[in-house]
Amino acid sequence: MFLKQSVLPQNEKESLTMRVGDSFCPGILHAVPAKDGLLIRIRMPGGVLIPQQLEIIAELSDAYADGQIEITSRANLQLRGIKAEDLSQLVQEFESAGCLPSRQHDRVRNIVTSPFAGLAPDEILDSRSFVRELDDRLIADTILANLLPKFNFAIDGGGTWFSRDGDDLALRAVMVNGVPLFHLAIGGALSGFGVGTERALDCLLEAARMCLQISKKLGVPARGRNIVSRPEALTPLLNGLSRFLVHCPEPTSNNSGDTPTGIYSTKRVGFVSVVPSVPLGRLTCQQARGLASIAKEWGGDLRLAPWRGILLSSIPDDSVGLVSAKLKAVNLSLDGKDGYQGVSACAGSDCCDASLANVRRDAVILAAHLSGREPKPGWTVNISGCEKQCAMRTEATAKLVATPNGYNLMINKHFLGSGYSFEAALDAMLTYQAEMPLEVSSCQ
Length: 444
Description:
Oligomer: single chain
Strand order of the largest sheet: 6-7-8-9-10-11
């Protein structure tokens, strides 16, 4: 059963149609046309997902989309293959489910943190309360509704870090004389300044407002990388934040290029985190319901991850066998030997007019060849249908970019050439992966 439907005024229903295609960065109220139908994206700040939400989204995907749920590289969700005539009803269902807390901030949504927040033994502080407060304050601020849809906030509590290198504004925890501070990073660059935890969100939100002001004044996009690359933009930004900032050492946490899979210990004695492999960042509705059922049965949390995966936290360690069996029943692997670990692909020619290759088909072929092999630390593959490289992480061990004449191929940051057939690229990737050591990451 769907939740009780909300009723939209007629002018709101009409505006939904008007919003289709007005930007190529989707939201719930901003559906974007694709080859396979309309695409919408659902904001999930910090990747936090309650089981009931996942069940509802699975039901809506079954009813109105292609029966899949995609996890994005900023730990949000998206549905595709939606018919135009179903869009208004689908939006009402999402609003009833609480997935649209602010219509004005539909596409101002990117707040990432480690999916292991509050769990990792090596973290300095738990970032989850900061994420919740940041989102509450963000959607209450009408000025910040003008941020670009790709603008990304990140809050790193220390330890291993899984976000993108180019976060627009990031707070990264450091310990100074026994006191936690947040180091401010802008566009992926460390500023050399930090802020106390009690004023951290004031500083972050003010920095976002100043990015908008500087963008308007200088005529540059309001993105961190544009600000940090221009002294005439960076200097006024740091000056405007000076009342918050102190000199601060750099964070020691590393940005991991790995794709976690398996069982991970936590700070909570007797409990573990369970991380299944999610092939190409896509869950079937059956898999989504299976994950939600596990989380409810064992009182665990669901967290979306920037590697386009999902994590089940707070699972009793004596229940791992039962959980593993339930995951296996819906074809989700915990051993990393399904061949998909670290492999990413965009929508491809089946779903996107811009794609020059059926990259998902090629990714499936690659995974079939890797299936059963021992996972290699640092092994990642990006297969893109065009030079835009949508949905890709920053770096990968192997990168294939489709062109009209075949694939451009890069392995271990070395460009090997253009015009590769997929078969030739496959041979090169399999050879390189087989020669990688089991204990050392080759791609940082």
